[in-house]
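Methods — Computational structure assignment.
A single polypeptide chain was analysed. Its primary sequence is given first, followed by the predicted tertiary structure written as structure tokens.
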Amino acid sequence: MHTEPIPTVVTAEITLNLVIGTEYGMPVPARFSYSAHQPLSVTAEFQGGEAAVQWVFARDLLQEGTKRPVGDGDVTCWPATVTGERVVCIALRSPSGQALLEAPADQIAAFLDRAYETVPAGAEADFLDLDGLIADLLAAND
């Protein structure tokens, strides 16, 4: 178990492009966050008018998606070049719809660098609070 103080949450404000058609997109502000308390996942909160939508997915999925197509299911990622700019495409699917977003690759890479500084790859188990997780699960069943 990790004994040093757990770092604060790593966040990044990134404006993504919501792909609507082949020649049209809409900017979507998003906040990506990573916490050592949940070392395996990244949370992305997308602002859409009055409402915010949160998605939680594997940190490693986003990392690998900067290099090659990955994912199977609700979240898939892959690198691309759009109008000469490197982007990370993030496809989200749910029963209520789907969206294709393009994120600036350099901003995603900078966010991930900070996340991996917080909890290095392979050290995630050192940061998991299994006792706390079990307590939370048992309390949810009461």
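Note: The chain has a mean pLDDT of 85.
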